[in-house]
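Recap for those who missed Tuesday's class. We walked through two folding examples back to back. For each one, the amino acid string is listed first and its predicted structure tokens come directly after. Nothing is annotated here on purpose, so try labeling regions yourself before you check the end of the notes.
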Amino acid sequence: MRLNGKLAVVTGGTRGVGAGIARAFAEAGAEVVTCARRPPEVPLKRVEFIPLDVRDPDAAHRFFAELPRVDVLVNNAGGTPHRTLAEADARRHARVLELNLTAPLTVSLAAYAHLRRARGAIVMIGSVSGSRPSPGSAAYGAAKAGLEHLARSMAVEWAPEIRVNTLVLGMVRTELSHLHYGDEQGIAAVARTVPLGRLATPSDIGDAAVFLASDAAAYITGASLHVHGGGERPAFLDAATTDGARPPSRNPTPHQDDEEGEP
């Protein structure tokens, strides 16, 4: 799948998953522009960085006004600290909603004219947290649930000129994985809960984003593509005592990858 001659914008594309997406687009032949509040610690090859706070509508419009065209927008910027609901006031939770739900809408509206002229594509970066309980990140999960709904509605309103799809991510191995899963032993234990036996890598996510942005997905819009290695094994199966509920034997050592990034 080649994206030669296309210009792709990846928000939050300076490290981790975002950097993996930016690299994948560059390798597919696209011209890539990333944006974030701070520049990358290590510049990415064949990727231009322009500073932007994606929560600022005026700044977003100025950002896109300076670009000659936009064929693909990947709304990747987002995230949250681990914080139970009672540990913070409503204003802090609202900022999580702003970054993960309102900001993708802000950026998409700012890029709309470019994307419509190019008959382009938007890829939202969602999460399995949007479809299951997310203790410790409830506002984030609510935002990602809303993001999927926004993408489906946007796909209908903006068709046929703009395609809009969502990548629903599971757990991704990054340089910050230790903050979520602990040391190597903890990461390995978490990886064993995934049917495919490993966490995703940023390049896995990048490849899926390139597919949704490419002509190979020309008839796909309003869809959610799950990139989660098979999801999570239901907890009740491990608690049950029948033979049929026991998990199949599997190599307990997960696949290890050199590439790491931000979840």
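Example two. Treat it independently of the first, because the proteins are unrelated.
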Amino acid sequence: MNFIKIFAPATVANVSCGFDSMGFAVENVGDEMTFTKTTAKGVKITEITGANGLTLDPTQNAAGVVALAMLEKHPVDFGIEMTMHKGFSPGSGLGSSAASAGGAAYGVNQLLGTPFSNLELTQFAMLGEEAACGTPIADNVASAVFGGFVLIRSYEPLDIVKLPVPDELRLVAIHPQIEVKTKDAREVLPSQVSLESAVTQWANVGGLVSGLHSNDYQLISNSLTDVIVEPARKHLIPHFDLVKSEAIKAGALGAGISGSGPTIFAICQGDEIAKKVHRAIKNAYSNKNIDFNVFTSKINTEGVKTITSK
């Protein structure tokens, strides 16, 4: 293989109760990236479209950092040239840097002859997350690489559990056209939490995992509650409480902040309820003098995938 074009999905991280430990991949929103073998060694990023302000310097770009680390670990007699088309905005709360990092890990691995496992690809992609947002978090990149729902059971050592996805699960998300930087969103988090809040939170994580395994939509709904992170962050997102309440009134199983925001996600059962939630969320944000877009998606169970290769 000398060339590959891939799709790297957007992702929703935290999923209410699972801060830094849960996430899932989106089916119809993401980046397209190409990787081409070159006779000159090293990594070169030749083009980035769809977003402004992203560097072509591979030592500073999330995708470039991943590719360089992989070539250092697995030396070869060729170089790699990359292009990226961003399908959604950085700072959206939908894992923009994770799509770049996870996509790079997958694409480079294919050109190398697939020497690395998905767990190793996630570890490489975490280096890209660290370069982009200062913290080597795994929830977004693991969701992009593995697809579906994932649970980061442990960071030391890294242990990722891929969870089942009930067939009728749908995502509705609204992206207000403002930027919330991950670094800023982490700075507002409490350094300590009460035992009561901790017990509530980890019980909800257990309930969500159980609900996904048993196709129990009511249990999923009951578990999509965040008593620690959401209360500290929601003031960063205009009209968050209104959007969440309208989504739930329209039938959503639950709603919350996607990643560090400003995107707000709602999880629904079935297409009809998703359509109602889509309308309700759109109406809630109309006439607020903030541009926004709303989309509906199935859960992407495949993760990063090949579009074409030769």
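Answers for example two:
The chain has ten helices and eleven strands.
The chain has a mean pLDDT of 95.
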